[in-house]
Design goal:
178 residues, three-stranded antiparallel β-sheet, 2 domains, mainly alpha, 5 strands, two-stranded antiparallel sheet
Length: 178
């Protein structure tokens, strides 16, 4: 668990304790400074002037869209399994391995290989999405079919978003997050 040193003016003014929202704001600023910006939630434990930032589901990975594509594929495959649909291929072995490899390519600054692997991963996800979309008529009308249609719309938007476009999806569970 990383320990971040907060500046004295951020933690307390002349050793007077600040209200909790101010401390959390200072902690978030410090987490942004130390590249832990994508923390889903921050739990703090104060030890003197040090703040411990427990990062949940926020391991240090090189930022690519590979994790998001892989999560989308996993969700689509799980949704198809719940519905009893047999997909032609789920890429359960190839896709996770390729997603890890993409992070390694990016870290090594092998961007051409990384982009090629990302295209392949997008293809895996697209095949799963199209396979479910073709069998959408087999699902009886109701809430489950609406959930499937909503997830397919999110994944389609994820696959077709431009790198520098507006309204990008950063998380499947919260598509409206900036």
């Amino acid at each position: 668990m990383p320990i971040f040193q907060l500046e004295h003016f951020a933690f307390d003014l002349n050793r007077k304790t600040l209200p909790l929202p101010s401390v959390e704001r200072a902690l978030r600023c410090n987490c942004v400074r130390y590249n832990t910006k994508r923390c889903s939630s921050v739990e703090t434990a104060f030890e003197g002037d040090q703040v411990r930032c427990k990062r949940l589901d926020c391991k240090s990975r090189y930022r690519t869209h590979a994790r998001l594509y892989e999560k989308a594929r996993v969700k689509l495959v799980a949704l198809a399994k719940d519905l009893g649909l047999d997909l032609r291929q789920t890429y359960a072995r190839k896709a996770p391995r390729l997603a890890m490899q993409i992070g390694r390519y990016a870290h090594a600054r092998q961007y051409k290989r990384m982009r090629k692997a990302l295209r392949t991963l997008r293809g895996y996800e697209g095949r799963a999405m199209r396979d479910i979309r073709q069998r959408l008529d087999d699902i009886p009308a109701g809430t489950m079919r609406d959930n499937v249609a909503e997830m397919l719309a999110r994944v389609s938007k994820l696959l077709h978003q431009a790198p520098k476009g507006r309204g990008k999806i950063y998380a499947l569970h919260e598509p409206d997050v900036d």
